[in-house]
């Protein structure tokens, strides 16, 4: 584990390992511990795929808690935390995400199949047979970066041009898959669409998926040719 400063009021814990579900669980356990301790000077905790940034109020630490060196204090605090994570103890069923693959729902799939030299049925099987885990949240509210994709589907390019990408679009990026949660424009490679709403600001728990959750894609036939929130 590597610990280093990020500016004058943040510290980063890097696990320096390959991104795996165990790595994510380790970071979540550390975040849970810090939240439970309710340190008054920690203002924000931001986990990513393989590290976590802890933002702290250095001024408050010096003035109200008589801590002479906030960074050194935070570093020693993090080094002192010992958490034993029993991976796989709390196994839950993956969330099933139906997907309409290809056609108007996945406008980039046909060109992608030519790139892979693969037929559509094989692609769908490879993409949907794996269990993915949410290794990072970002880009837009509730947007899950999904790790666990079959290596045969890794890509090293994006789309040729930027285009309108509606919420619900299932995309590929590098070694990951993802699900767009708000209408946007971009050059992601869009392979399909899900009618499942992953982000709903009208609900108290407004994101369907959270960091560390698991999902499975399921190929489904569309009931309508309309997308963008009307399926």
What does this structure look like?
The protein is an alpha+beta fold and 231 residues long. The chain has 2 domains: 2-80, Gyrase A, domain 2; 95-219, Cyclophilin (Beta Barrel). Helix content is 23%, strand content 28%. It contains 5 helices and 13 strands. It has helices spanning 21-37, 58-65, 70-80, 109-116, 120-128, and strands spanning 2-5, 10-14, 42-47, 51-56, 95-101, 131-137, 144-147, 163-165, 169-173, 176-179, 184-186, 189-193, 214-219. Strands 5-12-9-10-7-6-13 form a 7-stranded mixed β-barrel. The mean pLDDT is 90. GO terms for molecular function: 5-oxoprolinase (ATP-hydrolyzing) activity. Keywords: ATP-binding, Hydrolase, Nucleotide-binding. Its EC number is 3.5.2.9. This is 5-oxoprolinase subunit PxpB.
Task: Please render the helix and strand layout as text.
Blueprint: E1 2-5, E2 10-14, H1 21-37, E3 42-47, E4 51-56, H2 58-65, H3 70-80, E5 95-101, H4 109-116, H5 120-128, E6 131-137, E7 144-147, E8 163-165, E9 169-173, E10 176-179, E11 184-186, E12 189-193, E13 214-219
Parallel strand pairs: 5-13
Antiparallel strand pairs: 1-2, 2-4, 3-4, 5-12, 6-7, 6-13, 7-10, 8-11, 9-10, 9-12
InterPro entries: CT_C_D, Cyclophilin-like_dom_sf, PxpB
Enzyme class: hydrolase
Domain Carboxyltransferase: 1-209
